[in-house]
Amino acid sequence: MRQQRPERRHGASLVRGALVPDSTHDQRLLDRRGPAEWLHMDPWRVMRIQAEFVEGFGQLAELPPAVTVFGSARTPEDSPEYQMSVQLGRALAEAGYAVITGGGPGCMEGANRGAREAGGISVGLGIELPFEQRMNDYVDLGIEFRYFFVRKTMFVKYANGFITLPGGFGTLDELFEALTLVQTGKVTSFPVILLGSRYWGGLIDWIRGTLESTGKISPKDLDLVQVTDDVDEAVAAIAESDERRLARLREEREAVESNVAAGE
Ligand SMILES: CC(C)=CCNc1ncnc2c1ncn2[C@@H]1O[C@H](COP(=O)(O)O)[C@@H](O)[C@H]1O
């Protein structure tokens, strides 16, 4: 015999029995006297996450070719690393690239500053942090994100490559995310460049001496990252990768066009 159990449809979901709540979404929406915890529940968070993607995609879709620059939030303004970040921002802008950073202080500020001083497009993708933090003054287009993973999608999606200055955990996280995406073929034609051979040398030695030598990565994976001390060399590596990508796209288009012509 069919059991009669209470049931309720929640959009695409169906709940029955004890899972049926004693109020509806509408009631909870309209009942302003009720508690506000539902605002912080996961289904609602999804809407916020969606909104962040929509805002990010909308603001960045028309950006010209861009490069994302990572690096420490703690680099002092009077340090050589800060100077290098300014020089890098400037060189990227002069080569026609918009510069995207995390919008914070230190190396991020330096790269935004260089881009702005050279008349380029200076973008900051900020992140909500548990302590007071504001977008640096050299950002012309700034977007604030609540979620790291949404922001990281923007860093990759709108950049033609990453250049990484000396940094800490945040920088390493961004660096290894990029390398994983390239290694697994999720992004193609995406140079990852480390600026500062003294700073990064130990990490590269460890990757070679431990990861590669024990077979955790393949020897060719080491080619995914380039190390240099020369800002112009870093920018040139991005430009060369772009040229190769454009040439490949041209070839693919020509092949499609000649197939279409042959079929006619
Ligand atoms: C002084 C201080 C800690 C400020 C934090 N303010 C921040 N504002 C924006 N992005 C950040 C900040 N801290 C870390 N990040 C992200 O993580 C990277 C730097 O982290 P770290 O300093 O290397 O580990 C940046 O590329 C940036 O994307």
UniProtKB/TrEMBL annotation:
Keyword Isomerase attributed: no
GO function term, MF aspect, one: cytokinin riboside 5'-monophosphate phosphoribohydrolase activity
InterPro entries in the record: LOG, LOG_fam, LOG_family_nucleotidases
Basic and acidic residues: compositionally biased ranges: 1-10
Region annotated Disordered, chain positions: 1-27
SUPFAM superfamilies named among the record's database cross-references: MCP/YpsA-like
Family classification: Belongs to the LOG family.
Protein name: Cytokinin riboside 5'-monophosphate phosphoribohydrolase
Species in which this protein is naturally found: Spongiactinospora rosea
